[in-house]
# Entry
Amino acid sequence: MNALLTFPKGGVHPPEFKEQTQGLAIETMPVPDELELILGQHIGAPCQPTVAKREAVGEGQVIGEVKKGLGVPLHSPVAGKVKDIGMSAHPLRVSAPSITLTVDREAAPLQYEKDAWQSLASDELLTRVHDGGIIGIGGAGFPTHVKLKPPAGSPVDTLVLNGAECEPYITADHRAMLEHTAEVVEGARILLKILGIKTCHIGIENNKPDAIKAMAEVAARVPAAEADIRVRTLQVKYPQGSEKQLIQAVTGRKVPAMALPSAVGVVVQNVSTAKAVYDAVACRKPLYEKVITVAGKGIGRPANLLVKVGTRLKDIVEYLGGLQPGLSKIVLGGPMMGFAVSSLDVPVTKTTSAVLFLTRDEIDTRPHSQCIRCGWCLEACPMGLEPKEIAIHVEAGRSEVTEPFGVFECFECGSCAYVCPAKRPLVQFIRLAKMKAKRPQ
Amino acid sequence: MWKVSVSPHLKSSESVEKIMWTVVACLVPPLVLSVFVFGIQTLLITAVSVVSCVAVEWLSQKALKRPVTIKDGSAVLTGMLLAFVIPPGVSPLLPILAAVFAIYIGKHLLGGIGYNFFNPALLGRAFLLASFPVAMTSAWLPPVENMAIFSFFGGAVDAVSTATPLAVMKERGMAAFTELFGSGTSLYGSFFLGWRPGCIGETSGFLLLLGGLYLLYRGYITWHIPVSLLGTIAVLSWIFGGEGYFGGDPLLAVLSGGAILGAFFMATDYVTSPGNKPAKLVFGCAIGALTVLIRLKGGYPEGICYAILLMNPLSTVLDGWFKLKRFAPPVGGAK
# Structure
């Protein structure tokens, strides 16, 4: 076996905490009585509803569309009725426009048949990706069809599939690679055809040896004439799944500051996005279901759940045996980059990868103190920034002058704040800096 | 109610308190040895120093209306280090005065932990050296015989009966030095283990090195400053330290005075040293060079205290010289 690949600068090793769910097969959660679909699921313009209140909808029917700007359609995950078009609780924006659906218990779930996508032209495949509502479901939520049409000036030669899953607790991609191996690899073949290239690297961290083995076996069966799909084993290090760090680990190329991966000829997609692409293109099944990891000591029964987009947290909690004493924080996404929420009314979106119910002993709530200039954040930052200097400027009310420190290169992985012995909220300081400083053009 | 805060929600188990108390723990073995070498007086001076540093920190923070942080261990550490760099035979009044200067003026008036640009313990020593030059350069105690560590209570302490090895070498030359402290392996041995006159904490190179290596192992300090500092002292002492060139004794130079204490415990102070690795190397080399310069040409037998104090305020300048390398510059180069 080759030496383990990784990015050379920075990074941290938080405890993995994956043992709670890594051995649990994906389980389909029964559909709750009501779903709440936020209209702005992706980066770009939010969808406008295409259905009216009290209108009946079918499973997979388009219920929202982006009329102008960047975006993908939104589909109904169930057959049912539009109960309301109003506002929903939202993890970041507090509330956001949404469509509430009541589920029709009589309707039989839709069955999808696989058809031959190989005969389709690449722009027809791309249309199916768009029509299927596919976005980057690893967390960013960037519309996939846009990423698959790189700017004319920067030709792409490599597709990188992100199976690193470097965030602690989360095992959803791990299970998808194990249980939907063929679909993920076929999704990669579709993506390669759309891009008109042959090389694909699938980066998987070394803590998932079963997934590495399964994926490598299936990838090896792809005819060499069609594509060269290789599984690359990555060292376990956070943030290995960050786009720029993953590209560097796998291809050795460095994406310039403020540039997209296409600048170095690479497109990155999450392994679960590849599976969604397979569903949308080969089976014509839009993206309205999602595998999420539910973990932490604060939930009755941890699980990897297949849920409908729009399932509210309270329904998940009820299905998994309720909240446990000592619950202190509920996080959507991973513990390093996820968002804490204050309400169980928040629904799952296409980009939700996990819901963590963390108890008092799982989180650190010690108050922060003055910077002691230990320099650990300099060592931890994968982008070579100086979080301590940015933070001191922000504290002194000088956020405007932080642009030269590279605040806009920070992707908020949280490595600096993780290692900080003074427990300083460095990510928060940098977010404040980004709001006040002028973004370079 | 559930907590809502900005990511990351996981934090490492390290903390300022843990770092400070670990360094304090690393200083306990040399202190214990010092009690055996110089007598119980050592313990008294150290206790007075630690208690007054903590008391001054508390009073300063109360007076300046800042949150009281005496539990973080940094004042205890300053107290330990301050005691380590003063002679064991001084009056207990001296560490009290030094604590006021070091903690109130040297630390809290400059903004508290993280903002002081001189090492507080060394600032305290420099203050004492300027205010009580006689006591600070003569109150040495000879290593006690027959483990008579309680001699302090038994009779008067003859505090001026001896001089430190570096002072003997400087003032009376190598011949007198060899006569007093021996030569060869036995000399290195006694210096390494700490059976020689000196400040409270600088005696045992072995135990200090052990503590320093533990800090390296824990990742609390990096090798850059200690190695560059001691390396520079060794090389420069070898070249310029003896008769003519290349006649000095590099090993003796490293084992003498407070070189090891300074290299592992003083110059590596986070607040007053650079954060970037290349800057750390330059910082260490500069301290080593200044130390040798003061030892050989200056008015004091030992120079590491002033060498570190001179370099402390330059740490941010050095950090500025050696900017960290960013992940990748923007297209078209940096602005």
Notes: Residues 32-112+287-362 of chain A form a domain with the Ubiquitin-like (UB roll) fold (CATH 3.10.20.600). Chain A has three domains: 32-112+287-362, 122-282, 376-436. Chain A touches chain B through 63 residues (CB under 8 Å).
